[in-house]
Every structure is written in structure tokens, then in C-alpha cells.
Amino acid sequence: MSPRSSQLSVTRAVASGHTTLVMDGVLDATTYRTVRDAVVKAALDAPPLILVDVTALWAPASSAWSVFTSARWLVVDWPDVPIGLVCSHVAGRRMLARNGITRYLPVYANLTAARNAMADDVDPHRRRVREVWPAVPSAVPSVRDFIAHWLHTWSLDEFAATAGVVATVLVDNVLRHTDSDPDVRLETDGATVTVAVTDGSPSPACVRDEDEILGCLSELQIVHALTRVWGNTPTPEGKVVWAVMGPENRL
Predict the structure, then answer these.
(1) Does residue 132 share a domain with residue 115?
(2) Which of 29, 146, 166, 233 has the greatest number of CB atoms lying within 10 Å of its CB?
(3) Domain boundary among 100, 121, 142
(4) Pair 132, 184: CB distance under 8 Å
């Protein structure tokens, strides 16, 4: 029998320039994943900044606070949204520091202080577009046109060939291995371009061992060769497969 889940509530508020998550209840083994997924899900929506208020969150075991560093590492390569913690009482802030959380995430006494201190971490040049296609073969060329159109609009045509190949592989992977409608995101900070595709399968996209043993060049190995970094980020509904391209990856 599964252990009974402890009480926990997560309230999400979206404002101009940031998303706030207010957590209230118990952080333990039964709620750890709920807390982690809430932070990751907020980050995948790509707000400029995420602030997590943990003032009313209590952890029976201090090790449970590592959930926030775990969530941060899941999104550090992409979408790399700045995340800060807020705790209004001194004892809580000292406890977070004592457990090493502040090595990876800043902690502030209130939301205003957090917003002011982290203002410089927000990237004002980041641009994003997103669209969902039906799970049909014609989605692949349509996605390539979508990629080319927006990169031209952003004066980043030099990335179009590489991003088009990467998007083709990721969307084709969704169509062949899931029954999901591919949810495609394209974003840039002016120096790099990212393609991210969401689907409803929790199984991560990965290079098969047999391909590596036989020396076969699989589609995902092509993605690896054409990108600076790529990976999978789990979501409550499935996963996001993303790939970041820099100037060195232009074809």
C-alpha cells in the first residue's frame, strides 16, 4: 500500500515579469515530486523569472529541501529561467543556507526584495513562439516552414538549416513513437536558438545502445552532432525534448 500523501498546496500567480509559486504544507517523500514538478512546469512555460515562496512549507527531513536544486538542474540547460526562493523568517533562510540550497538558488526575505535583486538575471532579448500540430505526416514540413519563417523574422536565417533538421528529427520522433500532437517551441536569446518539442510519453528520447555498438548514425545522433546541448525534461504529462544551437552549429 502506498503511503498516504501529506498535505500540500501550490498556488501559482502569473504577473508581468515573473511567476510566483506559493507553497504551503509538508515537504516529504510523498510530496517531493509534486513540488519538483510544480517548479519544472512553471519553468517550461518560460516566464522571465520564477519566485517560489516557501515560508509556509515545512520539511520533517532537511534533505527534502534538495527538491529545489533538483528542479533547478532539470531546467538549467533549457529553458534556463532564473529561479529564486522566498522565506520570510530568518530561521528558514538560515536552514536553507545550512543545507547548501543557497549555493544554487538565491533566497530572499520577501517577494519585493527577490524581484529587485534578480532583475539583472532576466534576459530582455529572449523571444519565443509556440504552436501545436496534429499528429499527421504533413506536420513535419509545416514545422520546418514555421521554423524558417520565425528565424527570418528574427533576422537569424543562418540558423534555419540546422534548426530545420533538428526540428524534423524531433517531430518525426514524436510521430513515430507516440500518439501525441507535437507541441513545438522555438526561442532565441539572439546568440543561440532552441527547438523544443513536447509530447505525452514519459519515455525519454535517447540514442539506442545497439546503434552505438554497430556504429549506426541514428537521427538522435544527428541531433547530438548538430547542437551545443540537447536533452529531455520530464513533465507531469510526458516530456519535452529540447536542443540548443549556437553559432558553431550553423550549416
Answers:
(1) no
(2) 166
(3) 121
(4) yes
> Is residue 60 domain-resident?
yes
DSSP string, 161-177: HHHHHHHHHHHHHHHHH
Which is more confidently placed, 4 or 41?
Answer: 41
Q: Is residue 136 part of a domain?
A: yes
Task: Please enumerate in sequence order all residues whose Cβ is within 8 A of that of 208, keeping only pairs 6 or more positions apart, or say none.
Answer: 218
Per DSSP bridges, beta strands 238-245 and 83-86 are: unpaired
Q: Which amino acid is at 190?
A: G
CB atoms within 10 A of CB 76: 14
Q: Length of the chain, please?
A: 251
Give per-residue pLDDT as tens, 193-209: 999 999 999 999 988 66
Name the CA dihedral angle for 178, 183, 184, 187, rounded to a multiple of 10 degrees. Answer: -130
Please indicate, yes or no, whether residues 144 and 215 belong to a single structural domain of this protein: yes
Task: Please tell me the chain's helix, strand, coil percentages from 3-state DSSP, rounded to the nearest 5.
Answer: 40, 25, 35
98 and 135 fall within a common domain: no
Domain check: are 113 and 153 in the same one?
A: no
Q: Would you say residue 3 lies in a domain? A: no
CATH of the domain at 219: 3.30.565.10
Q: What total of structural domains would you count in the chain?
A: 2
Q: Tell me, what's the pLDDT at 2?
A: 54
Determine the Cα angle at 118 with ends 115 and 123, to 5°. 110
- From the number of C-beta atoms within 10 Å of its C-beta (0-12, 13-18, 19+), residue 214 rates as exposed
Task: Establish whether the linkage from the previous residue to 234 is cis, with ω within 30° of 0.
Answer: no
The residue segments making up the domain with residue 69 are 8-121
